[in-house]
Each structure stands twice: as structure tokens, then as C-alpha cells.
TrEMBL record:
Annotated protein name in UniProt: Glucose-6-phosphate isomerase
Active site residues per record: 353, 384, 512
InterPro entries, sorted: G6P_Isomerase, G6P_Isomerase_C, Phosphoglucose_isomerase_CS, SIS_dom_sf, SIS_PGI_1, SIS_PGI_2
Transmembrane segments: none
Keyword field contains Cytoplasm: yes
Amino acid sequence: MHFPRNSESWNALQQHFEQTRNVHMRDQFNDNRARFEEFSIRFNDILFDYSKNRIDTETINLLIRLAKDAGVPEMIEKMFSGEKINHTENRSVLHVALRNRSKKPCYVDGINIIPDVEYELARVKKLARSIRAREWLGATDQPITDVVNIGIGGSHLGPLMVTEALRPYALHDLNVHFVANIDENHINDTLENLKPETTLFIISSKSFTTQDTMVNAETARQWFLSRLPDEKLLAKHFVAVTENQKAANQFGIEIDNIFKMWDWVGGRYSLWSAIGLSIVISIGPENFDQLLGGAYDADQHFRDSPFEHNIPVIMALLGIWYNNFYGAQTTAVLPYAQHMHRFPAYLQQADMESNGKFIDRAGNQIDYSTGPILFGEIGIPSQHAFYQLLHQGTKLVPVDILAPIFNFQGASKHHNALMSNVFAQTEALMKGKTEQEVLDELSIQGLSEAEIEKLLPHKVFPGNRPSNTFLFETLNPKTLGSLIALYEHKIFVQGIIWNINSFDQWGVELGKHLANKIMQDINNPEVVCGHDSSTDGLINYYKSRKV
Ligand code: F6P
């Protein structure tokens, strides 16, 4: 077998796991008052506390050895220097170049891409400024009041997540909407209250071939032309962000209204490019610069910090520890910030599309677990939904908890209550509640022995459940940029250790391909019989109900 399973560092970790698996974090905290200092990292205004994990100093040393043996340091340099590490598509992986604040040259095929990046960013900012200043006028010389981003996956989730997270920074008389689903209810609900004269559509699609986006874009175009029937007016209401300028132009979008992407930016890593146009319109160019700056700082932290002080490396290694040694199948991301409500959904694509792979870089089938199932929700509502399983279920679910120290409006009664839950949850997950503690509690309540016996096992919490906590000053553009980039790099490090290519996504192709074929079956009046009996049966039933 191939790296990592046969490596010495992996075997050493396996042995260490056998020796330490029954150690309880409660005892580790009791034995070491400095545990928080030892296992936390500060970076800009972010505090990353990973002390509530099932680790000791030796665990971290062994995990770092694994990362080094896997070639993580070399691969970091390869990524930043533009080597084509996405080998199945023969592409560089340079989302970091999009936020390269130093403006140091970065080469792809011998060409410095930074001037092109700067040029496109300047165009994006110019358009955003004119819309925000009400200088970009629509068909009837009215300013734009509503912007609709039509896109899916990376052309949707990043812009949506950031726009929501930074709501307090948005212009409130300019509404930004997002349409992704091919289900017509999504676009119809969005267009319901909009006026074509004051609406700008951004067709965001790196490929400009994605069916969902193309169908929605066509519906938007028809909606517009049915109300303002003059194709020349489209120029004031439709712009595109794409690598496929020809297709966008054929769709009817003027060359001046097409913003460029490059093949060295993966869709799920593209919010820093012109795909972020809706973000720039919403929060303004200066705030977008802050977002890029925060990500740039995280890039420097990742590239330059020794692994023991490197947040994304530690995040990645902890994930591997649970995934590959404890057998955890999932991981949860739980922001205690209402505006971060799309953060877990965004990370689902970033993480699961990147590391949901079963073939290694050399083309061999893998016999170890790779990317986890990522899920999550905002903190407080999920406490009343699925935390029961986190505390007393039979599965180990490592969690990341993220919370701002100050709400945008400043400290308030709400915020202290919110934060008390953050601290309580991580404490409860770690400590649990022993039989003795439950017994004492029930005795004080005056319960009979029989009642105590009946209730006791149900009230015990095993604890020893891992969590990372991120505390940051406020949810501002710079910090958000840093947080996103830290997660991007965590995914990168895990991909290297698992020896997979985190930057392709062949796994989404099969369904797309079959859907195109099945569209023909649906349009064909004949009974369908070319699939398995279930698929044939479902298609035929659907068709019979439609007539
Ligand atoms: O889901 C597959 C995928 O290719 C994603 O990687 C991508 O973000 C999304 O589709 C949208 O692709 P495009 O921007 O080309 O429309």
C-alpha cells in the first residue's frame, strides 16, 4: 500500500492511539493547569483553542511528523509557486494569488499572472462602485436597486455565505439575491417583487455550461425581455463572470460586461475572484480589500509558521487523528453567529468536493478513510436539534465552534447569554457528567433510591468529546477572510496527507451526464426501457403522471 498507511509515522500514531485511547480529557485538564496555554494559538484577532481534544504533546509531535513525512512543507511551496499540483486537470492551484497583497510575481506557464488579477479586480471594483453610487443606470435611467447572482456550487455558496456573514457592512437600499436551484420556484420567488428596469443579473459560471445556471439565466433573460422587449437593453442589466467568454458573449452578454476567471482557480475556491462581484457590490470595494487582506494574512501564517503554531496544519492533523485513528465519520461546524448561517453549507462544498475521494494521486484505490461528512448549523438553534447526539450518541463527532467576542452592535445581554452557551457546550462535551455527579444531584433533589436507580444511567454524559473553539473580536471582513482561508488550507493539508488530489471533482460529473441523457428520455413520448428497472419505472411513472 501507499503513503500514508505504510509510513513509520502512521504506525507510530497507531501505537500511540492504542496507548492513549482511554485517557479522559477531564483527567488531562486536572493534571495540567497549563493545558489551555499549551494547546492554543493566537493569530491576528483570532484565538484558536484546541486544548479540548484527545491529545497530548506526544500526539501533536507524532502528527506533525506525519505531515512532514507526507511532504506537506514541499507541497505548500509548490502550491504557492504555481506548480501544477492539480495533476488530473494539469492545472495550478492559485486562489492564493487572488489575494496576494504583496503583489510579488506569481507565474503560470512562465507568465506573471498578478497584473491580470489586479486588472480584473479593478474592473470588478469599478462596476461595484458605479452601482453603489447609483451611477450605473438601467434601461429607463433608473439606478439599480436589486442584484441577482445566478450561479451554483462555488459560483454561489461563497458569495452567498460572505454576503450574509457581512450583512452589517451592506448598503441597505441595494438588495443582493442569489438563485442557484434549477427548481423554478427559486427564480420565480426571487423575481416576484423585482422590476427589470432596476435589476442587474450576474451570470456566474466558470464554465458557462452548467445546466442549472444556464436554465436560470435563460429564464431571467426571458423575464427581462418579456417586460422590456429590446435586446440592446440587456447590456445594462446582464453581466457575466466566466472563463468561457465566448459562451457568455453568445448568450448575449457584451464583452465589456464579462469578467474573467482562470483555470487555475477552482470553483469552490473562487469567491476571491470576480465570482465575488456580488460581494463587492454588497459590502463595497474597501471591505472586499479587507476580506482579501485577511485571507492574505492567513496565507502568510500558513506558509511561514512552524507546524506546532500553524492553525490550519493543526486543524488538519486533529481531523486526521479522529478520522483515521478514532474512526470518526463526521465533523460538525457550529458558528455561534447568526450571520454565519451559510458557513457550514459553504464548507460542505469546500471540504467534501475537495476531499471526498477514493483514489490516490497515483491512481490506486485507497484503503483508509478520507474526507469526513461535514455538517453544521448555527449554534443555538442546533443545540435544540441535534446536540443530544453530540453529547450522548454512540458516534464521536469532533466539532468546531466559532464565535465573535463582540456582536456588531457591541456587547449586549443577548451576546453574553450566547457566549455562555459556547463555553458551556465545549465544557460539557469535554467533561461530561459522571455517575457520582448524577447521583449527588439526584440525592439533593430528594429522589428515592428506586427513582435514582431508574434515572441514573440516562443522566450520565460520557464526555471526552473533542471540540476546537475559535474566538475572534468581531465578524468583520478581515477576520472572515482569515477564517475562510484557514479552512481552505486545512483541507489542502488533509488532501496531501491522504495523498489525494483535492482540486478536481470528477465525482459530480456522472450525475450531470446521466441527467442530460435522461432529459432526452423525458422528452421522448416512448416508454423508456434502457435503464435498470427502478430508473425506468420511475421515469415512466413520472411521464405517465404528466400527461
Ligand atoms: O458541482 C460541480 C461544480 O463543477 C463545482 O465545482 C462548481 O463550483 C460548480 O459545479 C459550478 O460550476 P460553474 O461555475 O462552472 O457553473
